[in-house]
Amino acid sequence: MLCLGTYIIFPFLVFDSQLTKIKSTLRNSTTYVSTVEAKGHQSQKSELIFYLNHYPNQFALRENIGGRFINERFEKINDILRNSENATVWIKKSQIDDFAPMIYQIDTNIESNIYNYKSENSKALQFGLTFMVIGLILLVGCVIYKHAKFIS
Length: 152
Hints:
- The chain is an alpha+beta fold.
- The protein has helices at 2-9, 72-83, 117-120, 122-151, and strands spanning 19-24, 26-38, 41-52, 59-66, 87-92, 105-108, 115-116.
- Strand 2 (26-38) and strand 3 form a beta hairpin.
- The model has no long low-confidence stretch (mean pLDDT 83).
């Protein structure tokens, strides 16, 4: 449980000092919805993919949207990107040379913080923290049980 919680929380453990910003004008952006199948069940995957001038990186947001065929949130972000003069994308410094780095935040001159990884994934963070707490409780319980058994 403790390991699972750590695995879920690990991507959230990014400090501002580990991030760098890429600022430029938008070259291209589009949204897609495609059908994916897993274990005989079909659902829809939504993608927002965009490129900035002067940078070779592909910036992409992906999300499973269940049975819906449109992702209103990605459409809104796409509209803001297309109407803005410039966009700033925050990624890890260690991923600056990656073709598709993980996006932690998107700002534009129209609206700041139109996407934030931590706030978008707060349910996963709560889920991971729950597993960590359960794991710690089990670990402490086992230590107390073993210690009590050893004493008697």
